[in-house]
Design goal:
Layout: H1 2-13, E1 18-19, E2 39-43, H2 48-61, E3 65-68, E4 86-90, E5 97-101, E6 106-110, H3 115-124, E7 127-128, H4 141-146, H5 154-157, E8 164-171, E9 176-179, H6 192-196, E10 204-212, E11 214-215, E12 219-227, H7 230-244, E13 248-255, H8 256-265, E14 279-287, H9 291-307, E15 313-316, H10 320-331, H11 333-340, E16 347-349, H12 355-369, E17 374-380, E18 385-391, H13 398-419, H14 438-441, H15 444-457
Parallel strand pairs: 2-4, 3-4
Antiparallel strand pairs: 1-2, 5-6, 6-10, 7-11, 8-9, 8-10, 12-14, 12-15, 13-14, 13-17, 16-18, 17-18
Length: about 475
């Protein structure tokens, strides 16, 4: 049966676009190198029609499909299991820009378009696509939508969901839903678009999307500030909202431990002020008038923050290179953590007002659990999203630390998140990594509704099984 399926897939997409054996290596290991799967084959369709035919063939053979974009996810949601019985469906070949409508401020692209290429295409049209992620050089728009990616400009523009007006989706039985309209208003029944966005490939396969574009700002300014506490950072955020309004596009917080790792592994980046205070904040503002107008507003904000003793020190980038250098420091934290050794990551969200109490409580609990544990806390404070990571005590064995304490550290973090009214996944998704934790922090009613939706849209449980939800067909094992 497997040989027959592979032959059928080769007829659909061509022999060169069905990979087996060693040729599948790049598609079966997650980005963090934590998990290694095994695929029956990797199939690379070049059109929506080919995707539909691939799904039909797999459904007929009752073989599960793992949709995959750039494979940059952090929750093991886009790689096959180790059984070697699943088909990886890679959308990387589907990278066409189908249409640009500058009057409607929309662009329609296929799912395999790399985010950075999309940004460049929109920029060349004199407009802006604001989704920005650390992995933008390799992640794809289909994956961004399937996980409802966040990024650094959510505070103004929203998540990937907010940037999407329409989708084209191949369903679990190989039908094509064509919903690529560019409408801002459409109250003709259930919002299917938002059902598929964030579903991590478990309900349907996104093959194309119509996305919103925005005017290019006349000016964009970046500031780096040192603050004495998270309470001060929160107060600075509130002041920035008041004084800058919609011009505030980014508000990132980084603790001293995070910046110390960047300074250690990338000293050429010259991290400013990290030794002065427990936290630094990176702010970005966009202005539709002029650079002088933007700078005046930024300076008024920082002067007021100084007067209120919210900021210990601050610098404003004088040019685009300086702004890029400051953002590069922020984006290098994850790489610096990896250079330091394997670590335990958490992507959580909380009401912004609860973040200081959450951090104080969780820091203390983890220090009691593992004396000397290093807390690498950074993220998008503007929208309440923290990457609350932990590193082994300095000089100890990082792999042994993760093996011994990952579950216990996670329980402390997630219990505190739940206590403070937060979510255990802000922008990375659930995948396989958090699937078994979800029932502890999601209401039974919500989980039952999700199971009913999964059963209705994918009754054979063939689309990315054992991701997000426990599979009822296998008695909850994955």
């Amino acid at each position: 049966m497997q040989t027959q399926l592979i032959a059928a897939l080769q007829r659909i997409v061509g022999d060169n676009n069905v990979l087996v054996g060693d040729a599948t290596a790049d598609y079966v290991t997650d980005w963090r190198q934590r998990t290694h799967g095994q695929a029956l084959c990797v199939v690379r369709p070049g059109s929506t029609q080919q995707v539909a035919e691939v799904v039909q063939a797999c459904a007929q053979a009752q073989v599960a499909i793992v949709p995959q974009g750039g494979n940059t996810g952090l929750v093991e949601g886009s790689i096959p299991q180790a059984t070697g019985e699943q088909v990886v469906l890679s959308l990387r070949r589907m990278a066409a820009v189908r249409a640009i409508d500058p009057h409607n401020m929309t662009i329609t692209v296929e799912a395999g378009v790399v985010l950075q290429n999309l940004q460049k295409t929109v920029d060349e049209a004199g407009l802006l696509f604001p989704l920005s992620l650390g992995a933008e050089g390799s992640c794809t728009i289909g994956g961004n939508l399937a996980t409802n990616a966040g990024g650094t400009q959510v505070v103004r523009y929203g998540n990937a969901r907010d940037l999407c007006l329409g989708l084209e989706v191949v369903t679990a039985d190989g039908q094509v839903w064509e919903g690529l309209h560019g409408l801002r208003k459409d109250n003709t029944g259930y919002d299917l678009r938002n059902l598929f966005i964030g579903s991590e490939g478990t309900l349907g396969i996104i093959t194309a999307a119509t996305l919103r574009m925005f005017p290019q700002p006349a000016a964009q300014l970046t500031a780096w500030t040192a603050v004495a506490s998270l309470e001060a950072a929160n107060a600075l955020l509130a002041l920035a909202h008041t004084q800058l309004g919609a011009a505030l596009t980014g508000f990132e917080v980084m603790n001293q431990q995070a910046l110390q790792l960047v300074d250690k592994h990338y000293p050429h980046l010259r991290v400013p002020m990290w030794q002065q205070t427990p936290f630094c904040v990176l702010l970005e503002a966009s202005d539709s008038e002029s650079e002088s107008h933007a700078r005046a507003a930024f300076e008024r904000l920082l002067e007021a923050a100084m007067e209120q003793e919210l900021v210990v020190d601050a610098i404003i980038a004088e040019n685009l290179k300086q702004a890029h250098d400051l953002w590069h420091i922020r984006e290098s934290i994850t790489l610096a953590q990896a250079a330091e050794g394997v670590n335990v990551k958490h992507d959580v969200s909380l009401p912004v007002s609860r973040i200081p109490a959450f951090v104080a409580q969780t820091d203390a609990a983890l220090q009691a659990l593992v004396p000397g544990i290093r807390l690498v806390n950074f993220g998008h404070l503007g929208d309440g999203n923290l990457h609350y990571n932990t590193q082994a005590p300095e000089g100890s064995d990082a792999a042994a630390f993760v093996a011994q304490f990952e579950d216990a550290v996670g329980e402390v973090v997630y219990q505190a998140v739940h206590q403070h009214g937060g979510s255990i996944s802000a922008e990375h998704g659930i995948g396989a990594l958090k699937r078994d934790k979800l029932p502890h922090y999601k209401s039974p009613v919500a989980l039952e509704l999700m199971q009913r939706i999964k059963q209705a849209l994918d009754p054979q449980q063939l689309l990315n099984p054992h991701r997000v939800l426990r599979s009822r067909a296998s008695g909850g094992e994955g």
